[in-house]
Specification:
Blueprint (H helix, E strand, L loop, with lengths): L2 H8 L17 H29 L2 H25 L8
């Protein structure tokens, strides 16, 4: 399947703005640690995509960056939900 075939296929799928992870059975701090790792990886991917877009330019590179940034945002929301209210408090 080519990249264009994949884009054509995905153009027909509604974006639910959700990050879907398989059940892990993790709870508490293990779940928070797992979600932190997911967020960290998504943030790193987004940073790399941003750097590439800034160097190369173009609509495709920008679309890749925005998709990666959306995944990082979804992972951050998942981390916040997993960590609970303690994350939202300030010192």
């Amino acid at each position: 399947m080519s990249a264009q075939d994949l884009r054509d296929l995905l153009d027909h799928v509604d974006d639910t703005w959700e990050l879907v992870l398989p059940p892990t059975g993790l709870r508490g701090t293990e779940l928070v640690s797992e979600m932190a790792a997911v967020w960290w990886a998504a943030r790193a991917e987004s940073n790399d995509a941003y750097d590439h877009w800034r160097r190369a330019g173009g609509a495709d590179a920008y679309a890749v960056y925005r998709a990666a940034e959306d995944r990082a945002d979804a992972a951050a929301a998942g981390l916040t939900a997993a960590a609970g209210p303690a994350v939202l408090t300030s010192a």
